[in-house]
Amino acid sequence: MTNPDYELDVRQILREGGEPFSAIMGAVAALAPGQGLRLLATFKPIPLFHVLGSRGFESSAREIGDGDWEVIFTPAGGQSRGAVAEAEAAPDKIGAANETWPAPVAELDNRDLDPPEPMVRTLEGVEALSPGQTLAALLPREPIFLFEELKTRGHLWRGALEPEGHYRVVIRRG
């Protein structure tokens, strides 16, 4: 296991009932191309493996005692974050980055809903759109499972973690 370039300990945040996702994503955003992250958590963060895997990181995890975990995220195959960003902008995944989309016909604020309601409500909103129309949704975190469902249904999306800690996604009905 190689030494990562950045270390983030979110155990205290978790013990206090907080949500460390925005801190983790902030740390990932601060990494230079080719850098890795060592994360300390109170559980094995399997959903995070998928999130960072989609951004070009491989993960390895080991329990370090008292139920705590060390997870090392390293760039997959030497891929830089710039290459990952280019892959994320590929048309088959989220729509061409230089393509102009119409303004959203609806804005949903799903931040205060318990799972799976943010996903259910967002999908219902998208299904009410006409083909080519867009909808914007504010969500409590990056909606990995929503992305999978949107892809299955043939819809396109663009999204980002906002500075306030929530995730904003714009979805175009296919």
Features:
7 helices; Translation Initiation Factor IF3; 174 residues; 29% strand; 8 strands; alpha/beta; four-stranded mixed sheet
Structure in words:
- With 174 residues, the chain is α/β, with parallel strands linked by helices.
- The chain folds into two domains: 81 residues, 2-Layer Sandwich (Translation Initiation Factor IF3), CATH 3.30.110; 83 residues, TusA-like domain (Translation Initiation Factor IF3, 2-Layer Sandwich), CATH 3.30.110.
- Helices cover 32% and strands 29% of the residues.
- The protein contains seven helices and eight strands.
- The strands form two sheets. Strands 1-2-4-3 form a four-stranded mixed beta sheet. Strands 5-6-8-7 form a four-stranded mixed beta sheet.
- The longest helix is centred in the last third of the chain and has 11 residues.
- About 9% of the residues have low confidence.
CATH topology of the largest domain: Translation Initiation Factor IF3
Structural category: alpha/beta
Oligomer: single chain
Give the CATH class of the largest domain: Alpha Beta
Widest β-sheet, arrangement of strands: 1-2-4-3
Biggest sheet features = 4 strands, mixed
Provide a count of the helices.
7
Uncertain segments are: 79-93
> What spatial form do the alpha-carbon principal axes imply?
elongated
Element order, helices and strands? EHHEHEEHHEHEHEE
Tell me the total number of β-strands: 8
Helix content: 25-40%
**C-alpha-based Rg, rounded:** 17 Å
Number of domains: 2
Proportion of β residues?
25-35%
